[in-house]
Amino acid sequence: MSPIAESLNTLSKYRPVFHSEADFQHAFAWEIHQRFPTASIRLERPFLSGNNQLHLDILVIREADILAIELKYKTRGLSLRLGDEQFALKDQSAQDLGRYDFIKDIQRLEQIVLGEKNAIATQFC
Q: 61, 89, 94, 121: which sits with the fewest CB atoms below 10 Å from its CB?
């Protein structure tokens, strides 16, 4: 199992649900930090691609490796209490728009990877 898959697996055991994509992004970045404390981790890192500025959800720099991560956290309507925390997730049922966002993330990762030496791109949804 890859270190990223292991991080997601560990995270899922104590955070099975998130309030938002930003909540997921922060928790996942923190889990990566716990696993690789010497890695440099940045959230919403800007990159220039031609005349465009792209924002990457999570950038992990560990030794000579660069890991570019884009996240998607699409939800169905849900009201749930876990422990002392209440979750009220919206129904994001516009699947065609979600699929478009996923493709745009892949395109963004490809542009970033083309501009970075020794880069590895990973897409999670």
A: 94
- For residue 61, the enclosing domain spans 3-123
Alpha-carbon gap, residue 70 to 59, rounded angstroms: 9
Tens digit of pLDDT for each residue in 3-59?
Answer: 888 999 999 999 999 999 999 999 999 999 999 999 999 999 988 777 778 889 999
* Total domain count, the chain: 1
85 neighbors 93 (Cβ within 8 angstroms)? no
The whole-angstrom separation of Cα 80 and Cα 1 is: 31
- State how far the Cα of 106 lies from the Cα of 83, in Å rounded to an integer: 36
Closest by Cα among 76, 78, 75, 66 to 22: 75
